[in-house]
């Protein structure tokens, strides 16, 4: 077994979230106790490819523990797509990094997997409000993003009821509907629309009409931004610099279509980037400590090629090669829970995992 690793690198990539600073603080703390140094790379893989790094001081993290964002900055730079893996390896050698810890979503983690495949020890930590990383049931940022969503939706409900009008809530979630699912469950929504399941606009309109004629003042529809409504997708603007289609705003198209079908007045609440902010929740802080502790342990032991995950509230280690196989859609088990509460119809199981 390799001697204790002394210089540990860390980066935060992809969409940021609340909880990153708590994670970084515990990581620093754990490493420092073993005499190791934590080197932060700027703006995700961009900083590794461009040689931008600095030694992280505890004093810079302390005041930020309960703040969202990431002091390291982030980006969607992917050195595999840009052909800059050789520069990444050069920087890691120049900075004398023994093990690199990458916190991000599947794109960020796929680079860590490749690095490990090439022989450099890299450790992954799931960090995404979408919570769609294979091998972990939760991720840094997810619990807080759910709570933020719930707070925003429950703030709107009394007004919807007062005005006797319906609402479409659009949650983030490009490929997976975990955020929309948990927000819908906690806000007693009436209809849930997910990227995992195709849906029938006419059936949703019928459901709204049915509830209104049964005396309900206001109907709540919660939809993921990646919801499968072709007409909504059509308004999506052109791709961004990283090849992603910005889907924010599909809720407006959905509401327009439903208003036309039902003759009802619908309002739209896009939860958007506010889901990445706010103070981390208790659950968030609890789990991010666990992610950090195990990542630090693995790094100190010089073990790479693994992602730290949490399954059934237990910390687990998952091979990074498994993680980089793709995303993690909402599981059949969860779809069934939502269906049993009448939130969605399970006629088509779509891409849901079994
Ligand atoms: O990374 C997760 C995510 O929150 C997605 O749900 C969303 O589509 C995307 O980020 C938006 O990212 P950007 O910051 O690039 O607009």
Describe, in short, the structure shown:
The protein is α/β, with parallel strands linked by helices.
Main traits of this protein?
Rossmann fold; 354 residues; binds 6-O-phosphono-beta-D-fructofuranose; elongated; 7-stranded mixed β-sheet; disordered C terminus; 2 domains; 4-stranded parallel β-sheet; 11 strands; 14 helices; alpha/beta
Mean of pLDDT: 92
Number of helices: 14
Main sheet attributes: strand count, strand direction, barrel closure: 7 strands, mixed
Shape: elongated
CATH architecture of the largest domain: 3-Layer(aba) Sandwich
The separation of the N and C termini measures 38 Å
CATH topology of the largest domain: Rossmann fold
User: Looking across the biggest beta sheet, what order are the strands in?
Assistant: 3-2-1-4-5-10-11
What is the CATH C-level name of the largest domain? Alpha Beta
**Helical content class:** 40-55%
Strand content: 15-25%
> Rounded to an integer, what's the Rg over CA atoms?
21 Å
Output the structural class: alpha/beta
Bound molecules: 6-O-phosphono-beta-D-fructofuranose
The run of helices and strands is EHEHEHHHEHEHEHEHEHHEHEEHH
Q: Note poorly predicted spans.
A: 231-238, 348-354
| Secondary structure: number of strands | 11
């Amino acid at each position: 077994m390799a001697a204790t690793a002394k210089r540990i690198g860390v980066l935060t990539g992809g969409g940021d979230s609340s909880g990153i600073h708590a994670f970084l603080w515990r990581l620093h703390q754990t490493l420092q106790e073993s005499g190791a140094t934590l080197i932060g790379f700027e703006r995700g893989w961009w900083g590794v490819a461009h040689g931008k790094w600095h030694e992280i001081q505890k004093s810079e993290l302390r005041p930020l523990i309960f703040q969202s964002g990431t002091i390291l900055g982030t980006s969607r730079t992917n050195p595999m797509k840009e052909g800059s893996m050789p520069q990444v390896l050069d920087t890691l050698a120049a900075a004398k990094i023994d093990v690199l810890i990458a916190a991000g979503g599947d794109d960020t983690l796929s680079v860590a997997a490749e690095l490990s495949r090439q022989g450099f020890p890299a450790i992954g930590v799931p960090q995404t409000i979408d919570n769609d990383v294979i091998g972990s049931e939760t991720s840094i940022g997810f619990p807080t993003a759910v709570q933020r969503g719930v707070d925003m939706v429950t703030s709107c409900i009394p007004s919807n009821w007062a005005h006797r009008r319906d609402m479409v809530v659009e949650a983030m979630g490009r490929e997976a509907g975990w955020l929309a699912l948990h927000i819908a469950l906690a806000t007693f929504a009436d209809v849930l629309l997910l990227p995992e399941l195709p849906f029938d606009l006419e059936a949703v309109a019928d459901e709204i009409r049915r509830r209104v004629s049964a005396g309900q003042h206001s109907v709540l529809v919660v939809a993921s931004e990646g919801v499968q409504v072709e007409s909504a997708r059509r308004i999506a603007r052109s791709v961004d610099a990283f090849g992603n289609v910005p889907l924010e705003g599909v809720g407006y198209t959905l509401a327009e279509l439903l208003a036309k079908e039902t003759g009802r007045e619908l309002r739209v609440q896009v939860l958007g980037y506010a889901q990445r902010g706010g103070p981390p929740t208790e659950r968030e802080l609890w789990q991010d400590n666990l992610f950090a502790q195990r990542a630090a342990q693995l790094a100190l032991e010089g073990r790479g090629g693994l992602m730290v995950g949490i399954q059934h509230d237990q910390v687990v280690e998952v091979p990074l090669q498994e993680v980089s196989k793709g995303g993690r859609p909402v599981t059949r088990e969860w779809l069934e829970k939502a269906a049993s509460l009448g939130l969605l119809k399970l006629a088509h199981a779509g891409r849901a995992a079994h």
